[in-house]
Every structure is written in C-alpha cells, then in structure tokens.
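pinging the channel bc i need a second pair of eyes. not urgent but kinda urgent?? the chain im working w is below, pasted from the shared doc
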Amino acid sequence: MHAMQYELTLPADYDMTVIRDRVSRIGHLLDTWDGLGLKAYLIRERGVDGSPVNQYAPFYLWNTTQGMNSFLWGGAFQGLVNDFGRPVVQHWTGLAYEEGGSAGSPARVAVRRRRPVAEGVELAEAMEDAVREAGRLAAMDGAVGAAAAVDPRHWEVVHVSLWDHDSPKASGEVFRVLHLSQPERDRLPRGRQW
C-alpha cells in the first residue's frame, strides 16, 4: 500500500464552491480506477474546524504502484496541473490500514496527523506504535477507516482517519470529505504491512 497526498493552498478569499463543483463534476472518474484502494477528496476552509487556510488536499491509498503511476503520468493528474499548477506530491509507504466499525457509512470528515520520527528511537518500535495508533483510531466510535504510513526520506509518520460524523475524537487537521472513490478498498491489505 502507498499513501499519497497533494495540497493546493488557495487564497483566503477563494470561493470554495469552485472546488466543490469541480469534485461533483469529476470525482466519479476515479470510482473505477485500477490499483486505487481509495481517494478521499478533502477540503479545509479558512475559519472552519480550526483551519487557518482554504485548501484542496485529496488523499489516496494505492494498492499498486502501477495504478498510482498511471494516475500521475497517464493524463488524469495533468488536468489538475493545467488548472492549478503542479503541486508537490507527498507519498508515504504504507504501515497499516484498518476498517472501522462504520466502514459501510459515508465518510464526512477526515483527520490527518503528521509527526516526525524522533532521532535515536528504535525504528521498529516507532512503526509498531504507528500501527497500534491506526488500530486505535479505527476502533473509535464513528470511524470508517484509518491508515498509517511513513516517509523514510523525511522520517515522518502520517495517520489519516475517516469518520461518519462531524465531531471525531481524533486529534489533527480536520478536512471535509466531498467524495470518496473506493474502487479497490476491499483489496487494501489490513493490519501491519511488513
């Protein structure tokens, strides 16, 4: 599993209905994408849920690198690049994915928490902690699912959890889910991934 996200931080006065309309118009195009476990079309709005910015920040869990590469290099991503410029694409190696008790419910909110892996810690222990945290998040009331991944270039762990309600107990940056494409969600490997 590979996790991927890019962020388009938009002006403070940006009309976010432009992003909502874009997602409602094209979001379904990835509903059948080969190799894609799930894509959560995420936004944050300045002043809502504590966000300091307007942002479009889709988050992906890929089952295959071929699916991810096909998206990035095969033309689909070029439409976003043409409209907004080429963003930095962050990616992480998957550590764990767990379905939550509300897995059949629509995701309304996502929470992302990024943290550095401290210098000098035992890497195996730090990764096991990240796996346990994904399981803890998935076990919480209203969780649709939770993932943990690591970027070994910058030594950063990311947790992303999806929720069926507006007030999750998870800590981190809160995003609204505009659409969830999940063509191969049932194929995402569960639990620890090494």
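so The chain has a mean pLDDT of 97. and The chain has four helices and eleven strands. — does that match what u expected or am i reading it wrong
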